[in-house]
Amino acid sequence: MSFTRVAIMLFDGIPLFEASVPIAVFGERRPGMPEFDVRAVSAEGGPIRTDIGVTLAAPHDLGAVDDAELVVVPTWRRPSDGPPPAREALDALRRAHRRGATVVGLCLGTFVVAAAGLLDGRGATTHWRYASLLAEMYPDVDVRPDVLYVDEGDVLTSAGSAGGIDLCLHLVRRTYGPKLAGDIARSLVVPPHRAGGQAQYIDHPVPPPSTGDPLGETLDWALRNLDRELTVGTLSARAMMSRRTFDRRFRQATGTTPAQWLLHQRVLQAQRLLESTREPVERVARSVGFASAVALRPHFRRRVGVSPSAYRETFGAAPDRTPVSRT
């Protein structure tokens, strides 16, 4: 569905940057771009006080949602802070959806779309830090915590701040084509396209082991020896447990199997090395316990969403530019 009228629903207590994301994409007049009618809406009435105390005076009330073709909830206050979304705002979202408008929740704005019941039985995402809370609060939503955005046709959701930009550009691309999306991306100086299925870049730190805890000490040892061949037998012997007891306690402590945990930790360490060193991918792979870069690649892509080389290109350390001495 094409769109030119865009309603952006703003709530009290929201982060300022996230609130500005759809305005940055749709609000600026650019050559060759449709004349978007962007309406900043006070979803709860009156001025909007952001989380850092800056007050915004939105020029529109909820009536501006009633004929918008695209309705965006760009963010939300932290779900544990303040009252739930106002009933009038949720009713406006439901009416918009019923008459065929596209509804979008960016980052924590997904919580508002879910509260309106528009995500029941659908896939959705939000910032990874709040994904488990979203799943707990709205069990009928298929929460996908490790993607940038989810396109369900008439309802779309995204992860954090950059994911919101990606989703807005995706909407332009699917409606008006890649050239216009690319022009806007260049104007914003952001990548022109990141696929929705690409993973959010999430670090899962391992808490330090408690003194005298054989399982925790074994996991700590394993993290320092990822380049070695590590088996369940090796780890259970290190913890001085039978394999069966070790496997049971391991699942209780981590929620996964030893093999899956090791694989995940190896990929995480590969990420860190790709970020902080210029070592060849082959050497990185061997240093974290893979036989080769070829063996690392499918596991890395499955968990991170891109290849090791593409990840380094985005997050890697800059090449050493220290002048070479000619003496």
UniProtKB/TrEMBL annotation:
Residues 216-314 form the HTH araC/xylS-type domain. The keyword DNA-binding applies. This is Transcriptional regulator GlxA family with amidase domain. Keywords: DNA-binding, Transcription, Transcription regulation. It comes from the Bacteria. GO terms for molecular function: DNA-binding transcription factor activity; sequence-specific DNA binding. Pfam families: DJ-1_PfpI, HTH_18. InterPro entries: Class_I_gatase-like, DJ-1/PfpI, Homeodomain-like_sf, HTH_AraC, HTH_AraC-typ_CS, INH-QAR. CDD domains: GATase1_AraC_1 (cd03137). The keyword Transcription regulation applies.
